[in-house]
Amino acid sequence: MNRRSVIGMLATGFVAFLFSPSVADATSAPVIRAGDTCKKLGRRTTDGSKTFECTKTGAGLQWKRVKATTTQPTTSEVKVLDSSALVAGRSATAIVTSGGRNFAVVLTRTAGGVVAFNRSCTHQGSLVNQSSVNELTCPSHGAVFNASTGAVIEGPAARALTQYPATERGGSIYVTI
Ligand code: FES
After folding, report:
1. For atom 1 of ligand 1, which residue has the closest CA?
2. For the whole model, what pTM was predicted?
3. Atom of ligand 1 nearest to the CA of 124
């Protein structure tokens, strides 16, 4: 065996070692186990599907497995229309983008102020439209809703439209979704 082939074998062995399963396993092994020592009380971390919280125990600060908290969807107030775009007794439709999602909304100016509903029919989800004064009709199977309250006037839908909080100020209409 000459010197060049020995160097080649050493180089190949080194590369094989670097990418061997044992090295890969070592880097992907769980970092935290319940009972391991932690440093900051109350700190949370997730390891794979497990969530741990740094908790004070008789042995000091230790990681303790806890149930992961689900994040609540965030709601935000979004400007939808200029006030002048919604006349008394009429409805208008709009798309509201909130939390990265688009919502089809129908708004009605009532005697008590502006109200807003999700346009999705509660029967099978088609988008409702204003059909006559104070009525919203679904084009798919004919359900009719009250445009001021969202209540069902005529089936097959059985539930009222989903309502969103709506406010009006400074010449603009806002919906919270
Ligand atoms: S989807 Fe609206 S009535 Fe069926």
Report:
1. 124
2. 0.59
3. 1
